[in-house]
Amino acid sequence: MANWLVTVDFDDFELDKAFEALPVIYWKNSTTNKDKGLQLNDIVYVYVTKPISKVMYQFKVIGHAEKSEYPLAQKVFWKDTTQLDSIKGYAIFEKLNKVDKSTLSFEYFRQENLIPDAPIQGRRTDRDKASNDPIRIFLTHIFNEFKTENVNSDYPDEANLENSLFPEGAKKTVQVNRYERNPEARAKCIEIHGTRCKICEMSFAETYGTFAKDFIHVHHITSLSEISDSYEVNPETDLLPVCPNCHAMLHRQENGIPMKVDRLKLLFEVSKNSK
Ligand SMILES: [Zn+2]
Ligand SMILES: [Zn+2]
């Protein structure tokens, strides 16, 4: 059994949506003599390129398929299916895990010298590599991070927090929570608004140092009543970076009324100025 790292650009292939919708994923297995291709029971990690720049998915190879066997259901997730024309065969992936951790980000890899100072592209495998090989060390780090995903997840409390506060709106709340955790929407929100809390102005980098610099929660502003089945999140107007303290307060009610961003900001300013 070997470990692999492959890359995907969400602008080419919407793996996030395919992961939710499909029972298995078909993946290019055009082999070169050098890498011998993806083999049964190999474990595959997927690195999502900019702006997310994180390893987020773990799969297991459970079979192979011919070019003609590529499922129609997966084609819809490609922006441009002509990319599939040159592919000769596929490996079939079973879904194992999806995580969102700062220890699996490009920033972290670079800080810890786990990769050279370059973009991550193409395919890497630890097959036949010595224990001190840089790629084996890198893939072992990724393997270990997936093993401990439940303990170290960056956003462990949001789901419980929200579900306990809105028991009757549970279904929609789970949906809203999903927007707040959606890596693509999160990345775009942070790209637009930065990582400073929009309520209290705190910055994790300023408070705790550079290791904390990409940490922030993302709050979904649109109210539950406005969420219909066709709703699409707009990262600029519907999402806001907030620290976990302010985030918790945004999900709290004031005399039975859901807290609004402007109201909380006002309360924060009033309280700060009265000190
Ligand atoms: Zn805050
Ligand atoms: Zn929120």
Automatic annotation (TrEMBL):
Q: Does the keyword Signal apply?
A: no
One GO term in the molecular function aspect is:
nucleic acid binding
Q: Give the UniProt keywords, A-Z.
A: Endonuclease, Hydrolase, Nuclease, Plasmid
Q: Which residue intervals define the domain HNH in the entry?
A: 197-252
Query: Keyword Chaperone, does the record have it?
Result: no
What this protein is called in its record is HNH endonuclease
Organism, as annotated? Acinetobacter terrestris
